[in-house]
Design brief:
- Helices cover about 35% and strands about 25% of the residues.
- The chain folds into 2 domains: about 1-75 and about 155-240, Rossmann fold, CATH 3.40.50.300; about 85-150, no CATH class.
- It is an alpha/beta fold.
- The chain has a 6-stranded mixed sheet, with helices on both faces.
- The protein starts with a strand and ends in a 7-residue tail after the last helix.
- It has helices at about 45-50, 70-75, 90-100, 105-120, 135-150, 165-180, 195, 215-220, 230-235; strands at about 5-15, 15-30, 30-35, 60-65, 65, 75-80, 155-160, 185-190, 200-205, 210-215.
- The chain contains 9 helices and 10 strands.
């Protein structure tokens, strides 16, 4: 296996507030790695550090064998934040054109990528509308399209399917599987248990600590759990009495 993301003994504090404590994890090439945990567990902070947006207080992060943050590496990453970084006065198409230009996409290549990513997230018929007329789910879908435009080697998605209907959510996951099979490494945060089941490997976070990691099957088998939710409760210190 080829490790493309290596988080080594990372802690993060904001002033006196400790957000993460001694996090270590590896993500392999082509893997879909999920970070599972409730709000406030530290998932967003970890992915921001991996993307180079935040820096660790302690420890180190390597992405594609380079210590982060690194400007060149940031061009090899597609990052979809939890809050949509969109220009609401522009149309969907104008937003995608703007992000495409940042990634250096021009002419025919830009047109092809815009059409492909808009189709993927089912926004083709809405690209001419200004984004301030989009629903919350449509904005999430546009953010995902923007993150995919430049065909990144690593795709980091922070709660990507919040507010998206189940049918479209499944189609997005089908595309993530295709991207993974084609060589893209995907890191996704979620607090949704059925979405966690779709990941190849999971890191379970609680109160800023990594409490368990492994494939969904391994985590369930090691705790004699029928569901990922039960396994999470087990590792989190909640025991069910028979």
């Amino acid at each position: 296996m080829n490790t493309v993301i290596q988080v080594s003994s990372v802690s993060k504090s904001f002033g006196t507030h400790h957000v993460l404590e001694e996090i270590s994890l590896n993500v392999e090439k082509n893997e879909i790695y999920g970070l599972l945990g409730p709000s406030g567990a530290g998932k967003t902070t970890i992915v921001k550090m991996i993307a180079g947006i935040e820096t660790p207080t302690k420890g180190s992060i390597q992405v594609l064998d380079t210590f982060m943050p690194n400007l060149y590496n940031m061009t090899r990453i597609g990052f979809m934040a939890q809050s949509d970084a969109l220009y609401t006065e522009l149309s969907g198409k104008e937003n995608l054109e703007f992000f495409a230009s940042i990634y250096g996409l021009k002419g025919k290549k830009q047109k092809e990528r815009l059409e492909h990513t808009a189709s993927l997230v089912n926004l083709t018929d809405f690209l001419k509308k200004p984004v301030h007329q989009y629903s919350g789910g449509m904005k999430r879908r546009l953010s995902l399209a923007a993150a995919l435009l430049h065909e990144p080697e690593i795709l980091i998605l922070d709660e990507p399917t919040v507010g998206i209907d189940p049918v479209l959510r499944q189609s997005i996951w089908n595309e993530l599987y295709k991207l993974s099979e084609a060589g893209t490494t995907i890191l996704v945060t979620t607090h949704v248990m059925d979405e966690a089941e779709k990941c190849g490997k999971l890191g379970m976070l609680r109160d800023g600590r990594l409490i368990a990691s492994g494939s969904p099957k391994e985590l369930k088998e090691s705790t004699s759990s029928a569901t990922i939710e039960d396994a999470f409760l087990y590792y989190g210190g909640v025991r069910h009495e028979n």
